[in-house]
Amino acid sequence: MGKLSAMLLVSILVFSLGITEATGLGSMDFLNPDRETWEEKKENINKRLEKHLEEKEEKEEIIEYQVKSGDSISSIARENGIKPATILHNNKIENKHLIKPGQKLIFPTVDGFIYTVDDCVELEEIAESYNIDKDSIVKVNILESEKLEVGTKLILPDVTPSYTQLASRGGERATLTWPVTGAITSSYGYRMHPIRNVKSFHRGIDIGAKRGTPILAAASGEVVYSGYRSSYGNTVILKHGESFTLYAHAHKLKVEEGQWVEKGEVIATVGATGMATGPHLHFEVRIDENSADRTVDPKNFLP
Asked: Do you know which InterPro entries this protein is assigned to (predicted)?
């Protein structure tokens, strides 16, 4: 029986080696001490998976960046994977070309607005004020509690800061500053067009002023248009949250698209470009930047 058992064992070994050689599973690599065992491979895969999940759930950060020689807003934004507007808004930069080496910039690692809790407000209130989903704030900031302490900095994803809203949800009116000082020469509403001589709807107000008179931003906001616009002539459009102000027939434009301007800042000078009978400012308040049909009477917001 001993010989028979030995022969049977040898046969099994030979048969096994034949199968493993044929399938490629029994190569001589097992003699290589550097070869990973299946257990090691499994462990390494699990480690890589854990690392991936940790990176995926990593909290977005607020960066404090010091401008270097040769930097531009665009290059800094590109390097950090965000839009230039995110840097401009969070630092209230008026002209994207006016940054200098040594200047410190603060911005999030994701497009959005840095919000500092300055009162005992609830997360729900913040989300409602900025018209975003509360869960998106929790996710981006990895909040463990919705109770916020004063001084806490939050990243509000995909939010454009609005320091001056033209109208609040409660119906409260915000006050705009007069863009120029002068008499209203044509009011909002239907009128006889001074050039076409037909009755048409005037979507803003005309304010008479001398050529070259500074035109001021009626509210703080982002320059979303600065250029020549058909019958409007030289035009500036500012965005204030969900509303817009338009300044037309200007002589010279003083701002560029993407720039942030403060309330009362000079954005252009009075002129008579486009379809105009003489120097004046045509001023509109719009609900939609590109829709002249969605306007409201500017006098409702002026003191």
From this structure: Cell_wall_metabolism_enzyme, Dup_hybrid_motif, LysM, LysM_dom_sf, M23ase_b-sheet_dom
pLDDT tens, residue by residue, 16-63: 444 444 444 444 443 444 555 666 666 766 666 665 455 445 668 899
Q: What DSSP assignment string belongs to 255-279?
A: --TT-EE-TT-EEEEEB--SS-SSS
14 burial type by CB count under 10 A (0-12 exposed, 13-18 middle, 19+ buried): exposed
CA distance 220 to 232: 22
Of the chain, the percentage scoring pLDDT greater than 90 comes to 37
CA 292 to chain centre: 25
Q: Give the count of alpha carbons within 13 A of 30, CB side only.
A: 7
pTM given for the model:
0.49
Distance CA 137, CA 151 (A): 16
CATH annotation of 62-157: 3.10.350.10
